[in-house]
Amino acid sequence: MIEQPAPRRTRSRWDAAAPYVFLAPFFVLFLVFTVLPSVATFALAWWEWDPLGGQRWVGADNFVRLAGDPRFWTATTSTLIIAALATAAQVVVGLVLAHALQVVRGRFAGVLRISFLVPYVTSGAVVAILAAQLVDRDYGLLATVAAGWGAEGDGLLSDPFGARIVVAAMVAWRWFGFTTLLMFAVLDAVPRDIFRAAEMDGAGGWATFRFVSLPILGPVIAFCCLTSVVGALQLFTEPLLVDPGRITCGPARQCQTLALLVYETGFRDFQFGYAAAVASAVFVLAAGVVGGGLALSRRWGWVA
């Protein structure tokens, strides 16, 4: 007689706890290095905290000072302009290249797609230093070309809008490849029959892009816009290194971002309480941008 094996329990305690055990390291690290520092920053914003001169509770004084600080509003303006320019450039270039990659087929199609990741894996410090050399007033390539055409001046970095364009161009150049491949992956997963049906109905290239590709890419566009803007609110490396020697990104703070202002007030002026107030304002601004972006995306039907 063949002995029947004992029935196994369909789900043991380990099976039920395994997902939480594997996720525990992430949550522990997230709690220690993100949640707790964020809570401490909000708490510190209500203090006058000088590591060399002691601490004193000041209540909302740091936020009142923030509202009247022209440095804060200049940094906010620069950050939002850079975010808008970089996001628009990334999305537009990504849409065009992703649509073009749909047409490129053959042996070198994979190599072409991988090449778009080269800017993404390049160090931001390297990109900023090279850009600073290009736009340098005395020996930069762009300054030389401009002088050859008869244009004279103090260079792009001396002009507020020009400096912001330089920083935005660096950000867009670094991230456009990632955005392109993300959009291409979505388009490549769409059945070809949908595009063939549009062609059979008489839709041209522009009509296919507008009424087929664009609605499909709506959620990806919303994701790219939100992540790009939130990333720009934390922009630090590019504006710091594009004008070496200054943490204000130029004598007139032409392209100083909010992250640079936090660094300046905290680690140069040692006003940790005020720096925490600026960081808290950045968090509120980022939350507002994300909330507004999600509301618009839901209204346009891009996200559920």
Question: Could you characterize the architecture of this molecule?
Answer:
- The protein is mainly α.
- It has two domains: 44 residues, no CATH class; 231 residues, MetI-like fold, CATH 1.10.3720.
- It has 13 helices and two strands.
- Strands 1-2 form a two-stranded antiparallel sheet.
- A hairpin with a 3-residue loop joins strand 1 and strand 2.
- 29% of the residues are buried.
- The mean pLDDT is 82.
Q: How would you summarize the topology of this molecule?
A:
Layout: H1 13-44, E1 47-50, E2 54-57, H2 61-67, H3 70-101, H4 109-115, H5 118-121, H6 124-134, H7 141-148, H8 160-188, H9 192-200, H10 205-233, H11 237-241, H12 258-268, H13 272-299
Features:
single chain, 304 residues, mainly alpha, MetI-like fold, 2 domains, two-stranded antiparallel sheet, 13 helices, 3% strand, globular
| Overall domain count | 2
Strand order of the largest sheet: 1-2
Count of DSSP helices?
13
- Helix percentage: 55-70%
CATH superfamily of the largest domain: MetI-like
Low-pLDDT windows of residues: none
- Percentage of residues in strands: under 5%
Overall mean confidence score, pLDDT: 82
Largest sheet: 2 strands, antiparallel
